[in-house]
Amino acid sequence: MNQPFISLDWGTSNLRATLVSAQGWIVGSRSAEGGVMAVKDGQFLQSFNSLCSDWIADHSCPIIASGMIGSRQGWVEAPYVDCPATPASVARSLTSFPLSDRVTMHIIPGLRCGAGTRMYDVMRGEETQIWGADVDPDTICVLPGTHSKWALVGEQSRIRKFATYMTGELYGLLTKHGILGRLMQFGASDHEAFVAGAQLGLDDQSQATHVIFAARTAGLMDEVPPAGLPDYLSGILIGLEVKSARERERIASAAEKPVTLIGDDSLCQRYETVLRLAGFQSVRAGEGATVRGHIRIATEAGIMERASA
Amino acid sequence: MNQPFISLDWGTSNLRATLVSAQGWIVGSRSAEGGVMAVKDGQFLQSFNSLCSDWIADHSCPIIASGMIGSRQGWVEAPYVDCPATPASVARSLTSFPLSDRVTMHIIPGLRCGAGTRMYDVMRGEETQIWGADVDPDTICVLPGTHSKWALVGEQSRIRKFATYMTGELYGLLTKHGILGRLMQFGASDHEAFVAGAQLGLDDQSQATHVIFAARTAGLMDEVPPAGLPDYLSGILIGLEVKSARERERIASAAEKPVTLIGDDSLCQRYETVLRLAGFQSVRAGEGATVRGHIRIATEAGIMERASA
């Protein structure tokens, strides 16, 4: 008897569900805006059912979920697993609970690193994408976003360490709520302004909280037009991130190999530009990294073997 | 005939008016929350009159104003003067216009530096405070705030160059609108958390957009209690600023002398702590630097001489 499973990519602002066959084929996928932050009063089961109840009725299959759904604000907290971590080690640490007699929910833990150093770092969901991208040993994976992650992946897909950069969140805060946004005109793209900002961020990376002020002064002095200022700031912030990440010791040691970019197409394009300016080569991971990561962890956890037994 | 003048410290969120005698004594002072951002439809004259009309009726005296009132969003734009700048050079570049037959308004220009470098920087109002503080040659003045300024002051109070750090604005954005604020409990102070944050910011200054994420992970890992997280983040941001400013070439060259702190008492205390951690000595400027700066510029401009003629 073949039995599929349901893959849930359940982040802060979105929920994406994919029905995967026992052979690892994608049978169907759906998404909803019911991210973790949109779920009121812990009504996670209801959110899940409203998207997937027919799949459950048809298949009574297990579910594997990753992302903020396993955070303290999520459905059930899935405690962090310390780096170095592999699909196998995480598969042994799933947080599993029954939704019914026949249906079990498995939440993939997030990863933690930095114990004993100056600061901890954490990720939830990106580990699954990295494993789905199935990169060569000693690769740096970059996952641009609200909280960008730079991860160093070793042998056997071991995530050795990683660092978070609050690039996307800073961009959002500074443009939506801050003084920098007041001179800006949104909606256009300006590649030249983006590159100029990126070069400034790369050159002056050790002056981060100073150099972002350039997105005001370049506007005041008419060096960058209002419609170019959003991209100018975006360039500065990504430049700061890329140069900072490049200077981290472990990350720099693998810098001769191409970096693997995992994420949204337009964001990856921005990072490609800045990585090139900084002297990094890059390649893109294929689409569907999250589902492939779920398949990999489900296999390691014996969920797919059990399903096809 | 003795004639006083009115000193206006008119910033983004506050307006402070001081009546100064021709001998330079403070006769009275008042303030209102009618900062530049609170004035609707260019009603600056009305805002001014509602605070000072009796003084004008009694004295018909000139007015000297500094701060954002001279910005593009202010009453009349007072074009920037380039560094190096002195009270004398600025006194020659006042933007003056009549409010009536007998009353003239003089707006002090802001300063600009960085022409020909990677970025311009600007200040409006802080130049007046620096001149009011009347520091020794080759002193670094630090003016903590929403947009902190670090200025290098040479002979004859010449402001040679300066740099802005968006420390206060970042703190506000990250705590009020960002994910870091979600784990925080506000209202308490936690000196230990502040010092720990400052040390992290000082140590890891070249990783600014990464290290601020510690204000999330330290909360998640229960290293800092929720009530300590605001001060932890404040420490990180001030630590980043102090270390960055210290590394700027011209600023570092004067680092053996005490830094002069100009500003709000509680903010200056925070900076004293972090400056000490970073190996800087500091002293405080006396109260009333803005009014003393206005007196100095009024004297250079001949406004006080004319008044006492």
Strand order of the largest sheet of chain A: 3-2-1-4-7-6
Annotation, overall tally of beta strands of chain A = 14
End-to-end distance of chain A: 7 Å
Strand composition percent of chain A: 15-25%
**Major sheet size, sense and barrel closure of chain A:** 6 strands, mixed
Outline type of chain A:
globular
Determine and state the CATH class of the largest domain in chain A: Alpha Beta
> Helix and strand succession of chain A?
EEEHEEHEEEEHEEEHHHHHHEHEHH
Number of helical stretches of at least 4 residues of chain A: 12
Largest interface in this structure: A-B, 48 and 48 residues
Q: Residue-averaged pLDDT of chain A, rounded? A: 93
State the helical fraction of chain A. Answer: 25-40%
CATH superfamily of the largest domain in chain A: 2-keto-3-deoxy-galactonokinase, substrate binding domain
Overall tally of domains of chain A: 2
Q: What is the CATH topology of the largest domain in chain A?
A: Nucleotidyltransferase, domain 5
Name the poorly predicted regions of chain A. none
Oligomer: homodimer
Task: Tell me the structural class of chain A.
Answer: alpha/beta
Radius of gyration of chain A: 21 Å
Q: Based on the coordinates given, report the CATH architecture of the largest domain in chain A.
A: 2-Layer Sandwich
